[in-house]
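Entry 12.
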Amino acid sequence: MIRKINVLYIDDEDNNLSSFKASLRKDFRIYTALDAEEGLRMAQQEEFEVVIADQRMPGMTGVEFFEKLVVVNPKPIRILLTGYSDIVSVIDAINRGEVYRFIDKPWNLEQIKNAIFNAAEIYDARKELKVKNDRLQKLHSEMNQFVYSLSHELRGPLMSISGISKLAKMETADPMILEYFEMIDSATLKLDDFIYKMLDFYRSTKIENKIESIDFKLVFDQQMAEYLKKWNMEDVDFSVEITQPFEFYSDEAKIRVILNNLVGNAYKFQKESGSKKIKISITTSPDQAEICVVDNGIGIEEKHQKDVFNLFHRATQRNVGSGLGLYMVKESVEQMNGKVILKSEQGSGTSVEVILPNLANQIQL
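Predicted 3D structure (tokens):
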């Protein structure tokens, strides 16, 4: 059974209301009101897909009625009946978004039928869109919980395996058995790193900015402690210079994603022989922060440089990267309205500069 569209018509002339209802009652479920105040009360109590109002009414014009209706109940699609002399008011109302369309008087039956059907289609589309948006919001919230829960559940057993492996290595001196345990440690380390990558990927692409005060020295010291656990950096000339004379606000999780991937790439793509250098500098000004990571590693061929920020793109045949790192850097930077500048020369090294705006004005009180 096809549902009938609920239509509310407001007009101060009783004859117009009766004529409207008589002409359209077979096609629609018609409700009428003699003044704007009554129309507002009805719009609060009933669900109407379409509300039609005459422009010229005592006490409150049709445009003024729609302005109040938007506050009381913005869902119905609004149609204004008017004469040519009211065209200025109509244009103003349409420009402000209170009116879907206007129909001049005296109205034509087929014209107003088509207008109601079209308006009802828009109402249904908006209603369906809201349902889908609400569903997406729910899925987004559930996905947040799922990702963090999954990472926790996976890392727990991994740490247990790693701990047991370390204890087992203390119990044997057999080189072959020790080699097996080294393979276990290497595999668990790779899997743990992959879990971190997935968390970083989710933070950089799916989660909205959480603005807070950033202490770059504290953030980097914490990250450095993690790097030293994972990497052997004894043969790397590693220098850090942090200058933060101004308070800076941004998303700390995304800044960690940026640092992890830039520093990680600088370490992983070093030359196999010769001196190894990584220089990190972070400087803030009242308006922005500049993060620069420079290395003297293998560099990136010019033909790959425009694509290295694409998902899963690798600029080298070395099997040490996931193709996610620079993509996550770009996503994190773009979500914070910043920019990335990459300079590289094959065989000579790479420089990546990230410029982030101070988001102090976006703090939610």
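Annotation: The chain has two domains: 5-107, 211-365. The mean pLDDT is 84.
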